[in-house]
Every structure is written in structure tokens, then in C-alpha cells.
Amino acid sequence: MSEQATIDAVGVVGCGLMGSGIAEVCARAGMATVVVESTASAMRAGRERLGRSLLRAEQKGRIPSADQVLDRISFGTDFDALADRELVIEAIAEDEAAKTSVFTLLDRIVDSPDTILASNTSSIPIMKLAVATQRPRQVLGIHFFNPVPVLSLVELVPSLLTADEVTSRSRALVETQLGKHAIMAQDRAGFVVNALLIPFILSAIRMLESGYATAEDIDEGLVRGCAHPQGPLALADLIGLDTTAAVAQSLYEEFKEPLYAPPPLLARMVDAGLLGRKSGHGFYQY
Predict the structure, then answer these.
(1) Fewest 10 Å CB contacts: which of 76, 202, 244, 286?
(2) Residues of the chain with pLDDT > 90: what percent?
(3) Which residues are the active-site residues?
């Protein structure tokens, strides 16, 4: 298959914050998009989230019609709807066992041997997902950033077995079709951005945990003193404290460096369901 061939039929597994955002940018780029969720209730919530995002984009003049974009997206709970896709992007929770199960299932369902199977994982090594299939050359990481419709960066993460053509087609998709900026990352936990960002956030959490400063003062210090658009604790709330903890754990398991270890405060907040913006309460209340 030609490296220049466009991808017109996309599937997305998961319709949470990331999955709905990925489906939105694909549909906005003119692709026929199928979204599959595990339950009907999760699908309804994801569709409503996506609809609200498109309506905001229409009101701001970024798209001519939210309904026109929604017409390109079909929603369901049947994985068989992904059988004819040219690209399937997994975007479920940051759990290695769950993601591995999805890739094993996709390997059975997807018809074409040329279909690209991608993960939006932010930390799990791609090789672990690739070897769950019989087509590891077709597997790579395509890691978007939240909010997907707004942020331009995408990390492309081929494994040692990913075919060069798959990487080339994926880069063309990201840069030419979606209009985003791709950077290449080696298949190491955390890739580029999270390998730098997560220790920074964990350091801020340890500072709060020790009583060194308040959450507000830590964040104000970075915003006003370093020109960051938002502080590290507010950013952790936006990412989701459960996701932050999961990425930190993946990094720690891979590198065994203390700076990657999730602080006790973070673990307790996750246990308590204080997950940040998604739950209405994290380091701040929303």
C-alpha cells in the first residue's frame, strides 16, 4: 500500500475524554469515523461530550456545522463495526491488561492485514501491545494530548517491529490530514512529553504533601514566575489524577528511578475518587 494513500475510514475504541476528542478531530478532517464503547451508558456520555465540543467549535466559527461533523460519526458497542477500518485507535483507560485485551480482540476482528492498529497510550510500551497481536508490524503509538481538538502535538511511537510504511502513513495522517505536528519518540515508558512532565508534576505534589507551600502558591509560582499557562497541580487535575498516577507507575516500573514513584498523597486521592476535573474535585474544586 502506498505511503501517500490517505486514510478515510477510522475506528476509535473508547469515547472518554481522549477517545471523543480523537473521534472529533478525525471527523472534522472528513473521515468516516466509528466509535465503539464497552457499555451503552458510556457511549451516551461520550456522544454527549463530543456533541458539546462540536457545538462550541461551531459557535466559535471553527467549523461550519456541528451536525455535519456528527453525521460522519457512528457510535455503538459492537466491536465488529471496526472490521473494515483502515486505522483503529485504542483510547481506553491507562491499564495495560485492558489495552492488551483490546489489541487481541482487534487482531481477530479487523479484516485487512494493512489496517494500522494504534494506541493512544501515554506510558505503556507499544511492544507489549504489539505482541498481543499476530500483526506487530502494523502496531504503533499515536499519542494525542488533551484537549485533542485544541492541542497540536502528537507523539508517534513505533516499536522495534513496526513497519516503516506504517510509521510513514501514520505521520501523513497526523500532519497532512489532521493538520497536527508529529514528533517521533522511542518506545520507552512515558515517551518524550510524559517522561519530562510527570516527574515535574510529582515534584509539585511532594512539595504540597510536605507542607512546603499551598497548592495555590505552588501553581501561582510557576504561572507568574516561569510563564507557564497553568500550574502543575491544576494541570494534574486536568489530566486526571488517576491517569497521572498510572503514567507515573509505568515510568517507575520501567526505570526504577525514585523521581517517577507516585507520592502517597496522589495514591490516596485516587483511592478517594478525587480525580480532578473529571470528578469535580482534585487539588481544586470544580
Answers:
(1) 286
(2) 96
(3) 122, 143, 155, 194
